């Protein structure tokens, strides 16, 4: 089964309204491949989502960078999955390593969040990845399998999930995983899905790579058999993001 390439741009906690307008203009002026070849999703900070959604041409979809774990209510400062669905925001990133590390989001909490977001009709970019210490200790696969299992345990369908492998040591460091390193983990993750879910899930679920992806390294990474796209951080704020989409 052919998996449609997926490129996400995670803007993280960056941007002023002027900068956001500039990025929107740059993206609108760029050419990206047809929607049946690549799915492109940009993820601005919450406050900018409505203007980005209105301003961007329809070839681009939008994603939130997080949502609350359950139904909304008395949770000051949180944004619920229902709110995102209500505003027709189709995607949400869940379990980014920055939230796992800085906000103590556990594997179980991430799994619950993914399940709740899916139950509200959102599509999820679910992130997994090991730290440098874990890689050096030879535990990469155990770590990403445990993170994936915590999600698999809570959901009944992977149809609306994209799995993002983002090694923590490659995020924002300029130290990109080699194509072989990325392919090795992606293939293992696919094997994990095959063994622990269903072969169809393993064949159809997109596994994308994130960590210092840019216009120069995207082609070789994207050429790996089990790399179905990218989750781009820093370079998604630059015109280079268009090149990353064209290069696939
Ligand atoms: O965290 C990332 C995407 O979610 C990757 O960030 P960088 O591309 O800046 O390394």
UniProtKB/TrEMBL annotation:
- Alphabetic keyword roster: Isomerase
What family does this belong to?
A: Belongs to the triosephosphate isomerase family.
GO terms for biological process? gluconeogenesis; glyceraldehyde-3-phosphate biosynthetic process; glycerol catabolic process; glycolytic process
InterPro entries named among the record's database cross-references = Aldolase_TIM, TIM_sf, TrioseP_Isoase_bac/euk, Triosephosphate_isomerase, Triosephosphate_isomerase_AS
**In Gene Ontology terms, what is one molecular function of this protein?**
triose-phosphate isomerase activity
Annotated SUPFAM superfamilies: Triosephosphate isomerase (TIM)
Q: Which PANTHER family match?
A: TRIOSEPHOSPHATE ISOMERASE, TRIOSEPHOSPHATE ISOMERASE-RELATED
Q: In which pathway does it act?
A: Carbohydrate biosynthesis
Q: Which Pfam families match?
A: TIM
Its quaternary structure? Homodimer.
Q: Which organism is it from?
A: Artemisia annua (Sweet wormwood)
Instruction: Answer whether the UniProt record assigns the keyword Isomerase to this protein.
Output: yes
Question: What's the domain of life for this entry?
Answer: Eukaryota
Indicate what this protein is called per its UniProt record: Triosephosphate isomerase
Cellular component GO terms held in the UniProt record: cytosol
Q: Does this UniProt record's set of keywords contain Isomerase?
A: yes
């Amino acid at each position: 089964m052919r998996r449609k390439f997926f490129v996400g741009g995670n803007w993280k906690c960056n941007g002023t309204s002027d900068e956001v307008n500039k990025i929107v203009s740059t993206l609108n002026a760029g050419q990206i491949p047809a929607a049946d070849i690549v799915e492109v999703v940009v993820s601005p900070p919450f406050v900018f989502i409505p203007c980005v959604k209105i301003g961007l041409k329809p070839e681009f979809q939008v994603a939130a960078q997080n949502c609350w774990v359950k139904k909304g209510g008395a949770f000051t400062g949180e944004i619920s999955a229902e709110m995102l669905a209500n505003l027709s925001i189709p995607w949400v990133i869940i379990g980014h390593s920055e939230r796992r590390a800085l906000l103590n989001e556990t594997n179980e909490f991430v799994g619950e969040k993914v399940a709740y977001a899916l139950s509200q009709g959102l599509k999820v970019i679910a992130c997994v990845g090991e730290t440098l210490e874990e890689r050096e200790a030879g535990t990469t696969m155990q770590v990403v399998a445990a993170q994936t299992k915590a999600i698999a345990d809570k959901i009944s369908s992977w149809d609306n999930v994209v799995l993002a492998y983002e090694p923590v040591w490659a995020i924002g460091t300029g130290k990109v995983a080699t194509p072989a390193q990325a392919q090795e983990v992606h293939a293992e993750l696919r094997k994990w899905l095959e063994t622990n879910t269903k072969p169809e899930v393993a064949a159809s679920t997109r596994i994308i790579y994130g960590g210092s992806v840019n216009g120069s390294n995207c082609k070789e990474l994207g050429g790996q058999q089990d790399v179905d796209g990218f989750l781009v951080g820093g370079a998604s704020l630059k015109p280079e993001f268009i090149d990353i989409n064209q290069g696939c």
